[in-house]
Amino acid sequence: MPTVSESNASLTVESNLQKQIVYSSGPSTFQDVLSDIKDGLSRTPLWAQFATRDLRGRFSGAALGSLWFIIMHLLIVSGLAVMYSKILGTDLREYLPYVAVGLTVWNIINGIISDGAGVFPANQVYLKQVKLPFSFFIFRINLKHLLIFFYQCTVVIGMYALLKMGPHMIMLLAIPGFMLLLLFLLSASLLAGIVATRSRDMNGLIQSALRFAFFLTPIFWDARRLGEYAFLMNFNPFYHFLEIVRAPLLGNYPTAVNYYACIGMTAITIVLTLFAFKYSMKKLAYWI
Amino acid sequence: MTSEFSQTSSNKIVFEHVSVHFPLLHGQSVRADKNTAKTRGGTLVTKGARVRSLTALNNVSFRIGQGERVGIMGENGSGKTTLLRTLCGIYYPHEGEVRIRGRVSSMLDLHLGFDNDASGRDNIWVRGRLLGYNSAQIESRIPEILEFSQLGTFLELKMKVYSSGMRMRLAFAIATSFPADNLIMDEWLSAGDKAFRSVAEERMVGLVESSGSLVIATHNPGILRRVCQRGIILHRGAIIFDGACEDAIEFYQREIVLGGRNKRELAPLVGNAENEPLTEPTLVEPQALLDRRLSDLESITAALHAYFADMGHYPTTEDVWFGIGRNRLPPEEWIPGLVSSYLDEVPRDPAGMPGLDDPQYIYKSDGEGFKLLALKTGDVDQVRELGMLSAIDPKRPWAYGSWTEGYADA
Q1: How confident is the model at residue B360 (pLDDT cuts 50, 70, 90)?
Q2: Which pLDDT does position A181 carry in this prediction?
Q3: How crowded is the C-beta side of A3, counted as CA atoms within 13 Å?
Q4: What angle do CA A114, A115, A119 make, to 5 degrees?
Q5: Does residue A194 lie within any of the structural domains?
Q6: Where are the transmembrane segments (chain A) (predicted)?
Q7: Which of B257, B283, B309 is the last residue of a domain?
Q8: Where in the sequence is the domain holding A130, given as residue range(s)?
Q9: Which of A28, A60, A124, A130 to mutate to test the interface with B (most CBs of B within 10 A)?
């Protein structure tokens, strides 16, 4: 008679004939977490296909199709830049790239976390009919927003070309910054997904927090205008992630504090996510 | 544990004392009702004044060997779907253990993942990948899928131009073109025309004959007879019968379909004074799944004949109406006025039939036999096949006009 504690992981045992899968009660292990992620990565063609389908579906039937991602972004960026440069009395030539980069980076942060919070209930058709790793759906939404990000980047590139802001070596620094941001978003979206699946109120909370953060983060206003209160921005996690990507693109170096904060937050989020995932792995299907 | 298992290496699937409980989250929790009436579904577990969870599978144990084809029977809410999902690894058991040798092909929904805006060929790739096959495996199967689905050049067209029959063919062709170890299917074979069904069944049996196993949930004795060798009957989340196919069908007809009263005694109840069993069927299976499932006229009609034969006669009163339902469409969505007024006249429990509150079929007994008078269906072919004289579109109730004798030999 097997007891529950004897094999509590969905491990696979190589037998003389075929692999044996065991689903049992008991807590899951970090090994289960890793194999879910590994399994998710091995399904890359499928989630890549789903992500592109998500994009295609957004403007399906429209003559301009996916061009709308670019047009929409162009309209918002230029409208916001023209209006706020007047309100804030700043130079449009300086303000335009600032807003363009800021909004583009903010959109991917906002998109991934906000989609992440609803990812499991939204995919319950899949989760209840076929065995797919949970990370599969996380990869799918991350890729979807990464693709939207690339579309929106063309607006930034266009503006740089228009303003004759040539490429500069410092700009390369944005790449590691963006990689770090992506890592953070990958784990943050999974964490948000788990928490908001268990407690549906968290979804509302996350959505409101993101909207709130949009106004509290220097995206269309400059942190320096806070004067002596500028240090308050150090407590805004999104500010640091924004800076490590935006500052190099505007020709400035991000501060060391920016990097420390981002690395620290990414590490903490990953640890939290791993524990939350380990705890919830066998329960997620029941929570949906 | 492992040593015990390897001695019986022909076992493909082993359920060992598996229990599954659904927590009632997100405001689903309700006040405990002391009325433990004759209802179906899993056992509700109460804590204090409120129902906290629902036991969908209760201490389920069985072994399925190599090449075995097993049908899972049971009423709605008896735990069939939960069992299949536990088998697929979607739900982890709360107690006990599930062990599976070889790949599990979960075919609970053959259309899952289909994209209307993509071609049939693209959708083969999506489905193939969803089932976990790699590019080489999918590529090598495309000719066979094309041949069986008989789609021809349609394969290159967007799927939105497909008829539902073509969709079904493609879905089924994909599902059965890959080698399968353990095939898990929910009742979907009742869809499609007769010719297709028989080909499909043949193909399915062939697929698992050599080395695999097949587990299929169904209400349909016909499918069970043709496809399975063994039947397992679930009732309120527990196995109440496990044996040869014919015996299972007989048991099911006698105890579940017809023996409305007896089945209470059969049900292995869990629960004690503070853990009182209550039942509520709709919580076990998601509504969407129930709605999609077609009821099976054949099996119901056969059951009715058997029941009346058992009684020795058909009801003699002209005006005994009874309905049998499995569909969960709200009553207002079907034949307005007409059937609901009949329902008022129907005795609460005229023939000990379950599901009277929401009939799918309305019969009329004339003392010698019974005739199908009305049915609720979304399938126009079915209406035609049964020779119904008139049909009513619930969206245009004013169009039903005079109801002529809508008789058809059932």
Answers
A1: low
A2: 97
A3: 2
A4: 130
A5: yes
A6: 62-83, 95-120, 141-163, 169-192, 204-221, 257-277
A7: B283
A8: 30-287
A9: A130
Place B305 in a pLDDT band, splitting at 50, 70 and 90.
low
Is residue B299, in this structure, part of any structural domain at all? yes
**Between chains, do A126 and B85 touch, taking CB under 8 Å as contact?**
no
Residue at A7 is within a domain:
no
Q: How far apart are CA A130 and CA B29, in angstroms?
A: 27
On the CB side of B344, how many CA atoms lie within 13 Å of its CA?
5
For residues B299 and B395, state if they share a domain: yes
Distance CA B293, CA B282 (A): 14
B182 found inside a domain: no
Q: Please indicate, yes or no, whether residues B274 and B336 belong to a single structural domain of this protein.
A: no
Tell me the mean pLDDT in the region A191-209.
94
Residue B181 is predicted with a pLDDT of 81
User: How far does A1 lie from chain B, in Å, by closest CA?
Assistant: 7
Cβ-Cβ contacts under 8 Å, A24 against chain B: 92-93, 96-98
Residue B8 lies in a domain: yes
For B330-359, what is each residue's pLDDT tens digit? 333 333 222 322 333 333 333 333 333 444
Sheet holding B230-235, edge to edge: B104-107, B182-185, B213-217, B69-73, B230-235, B238-244
In a domain, A143, yes or no: yes
Whether B304 and B357 share a structural domain = yes
More reliable by pLDDT, B56 or B10: B56
**Containing domain of residue B13, as a range?**
2-103+228-283
Q: Are residues B331 and B256 in the same domain?
A: no
Which residues in chain B touch residue A17, judged by CB atoms under 8 angstroms apart?
9, 101
CB contact under 8 A, A18 and B6: no
Mean pLDDT across A9-38: 72
Identify the weakest region by mean pLDDT among A26-40, A241-255, B305-319. Answer: B305-319
Cβ distance A57 to B117 less than 8 Å, yes or no, reads yes
Q: Is residue A203 part of a domain?
A: yes
Q: Which of B165, B130, B117 is nearest to A126 (CA)?
A: B130
State how many domains chain A has. Answer: 1
Position B38 pLDDT exceeds 70? no
- Evaluate whether residue B194 is within a structural domain: no
Distances (CA, A) of B364 to A93, B320, B324, B347, B370: 83, 6, 12, 13, 5
In this predicted complex, what is the ipTM?
0.81
Kindly state whether residues B273 and B300 are assigned to the same domain. Answer: no
Residues of A in contact with B102 (CB under 8 A): 18-19
Q: Which chain A positions have a beta carbon within 8 Å of B1's beta carbon?
A: 1-2, 6-7
Q: What pLDDT, in 10s, does the model give residues B277-296?
A: 333 222 222 232 223 233 44
| Number of domains making up chain B | 2
Q: Which residues contact A110 (CB under 8 A, 6 or more apart)?
A: A210, A214
- Tell me the nearest-neighbour CA distance from B128 into chain A, angstroms: 9
Residues of chain A neighbouring B25 (CB-CB closer than 8 A): 198, 287
**Which comes out higher in pLDDT, residue B360 or A173?**
A173
